[in-house]
Request: fold
Amino acid sequence: MNIYLDAIVVLLTFVGLLFFHGTTVGILRFPDFYTRMHAAGKGDTLSTMLILFGFAAYQLHHPSTATLLVAGKIIFIAVLVFIASPTATHAIMDAGYESEIGAWSAKDGFVSSCLIRKEKGE
Amino acid sequence: MDTYFILLGTALILHMFLTLIRVIKGPTVIDRLIGVNIIGTKSTLLIIIIGTALHRVDMFIDIALTYALLNFIVSLAAARFFQRKRTAGLVMEKEVKS
Amino acid sequence: MFGFVTFLLMFVLWIVMSGQFDLFHLSLGVISCAIVARMSGDLLFQDRQTDFRTRFGQAWRFAHFTLWLLWQIITANLYILQLALTTRKMVEVLDPHIFSFKSHLKTPFAQFVLANAITLTPGTVTIRIVDGVFTVHAITGQAAGDLEQLDNIQDINEMERRVAAVFEPEILQNTGGDK
Reply:
């Protein structure tokens, strides 16, 4: 029983670490602010949640009231991250768009985001 | 299992240092903010890993919870603060053209 | 009634946070939760029109929606992982662009859920919402003409239908014809 639980914990945390690796490489390699935000918003949410679920599962080795409460709190943090992380992404993205950071496009390299707005007829 | 957790924590710290490269390189304030946000979220995990390795999770979990809440508020406040400063984007366009 | 539900939610939170089950701590929790529920009980439920049966149904359908969303996040992460690790030249693969669309959703909370869902699905991130007009940044797309962009829009339409099914089912009947 314990060995299966350990396997689940290792699996969850390792997959979370793998996704975090993708996020980090994405943040370092992607060309502009908006594409980096893609990597940050998605990868950060899922990798944090997976690792947190792994640690919540690890608490079930010795089931008692205290460890169950700790597992509940870890799940609470996971839910918090699930709601808060996309919202923070959204806020940072909005700040970048408002301060007109240059966006990268495949056709003509960096253009200012106000140019994009004109193209779209806003 | 403790060894695995310590290895996991080390890997997380290594990746956080990689993210720190983006914070140092910039090129805009908002780019740095992305890195800071991610490092903050992962610090929550690191606190829980330390707690598990020391067998005192019940104590460290409250610190982690507070840290997660605080990190969210800091991200929102910093984003709102730099939203007003339109120069943040203009600096970068000069760098790109040169 | 609304105040009592607020009290119950806060008391559950108190029990989980304190972890003490003796009479002293529980009575302290009851007293403080009662004071807070009395003073600021009208903050949690702003809309007094919808009754609890509707709210419970919404919560139940929202749980199903969350499960679907989790699957979408995993797909999005695999996509980001593949994009970040296996791409040799970013220039050839990436083609970011910004577009906007008008949403049919009315309530701010439903719009918030839709914005978060767009952020967590593969390839798109919400930038801002102004009066129901969503500005969205997509990471790939324009290379194959407007066809791919249409694909993104269809994904979002699908998502909007799901969010509307959770929170505002009456919209689906009104606009069911033209979609």
Observations:
- The mean pLDDT of chain B is 82.
- The helical segments of chain B are 2-25, 29-53, 57-83, 87-97.
- The domain at 2-97 of chain B is CATH 1.10.287 (Helix Hairpins).
- The two ends of chain B are 52 Å apart (CA to CA).
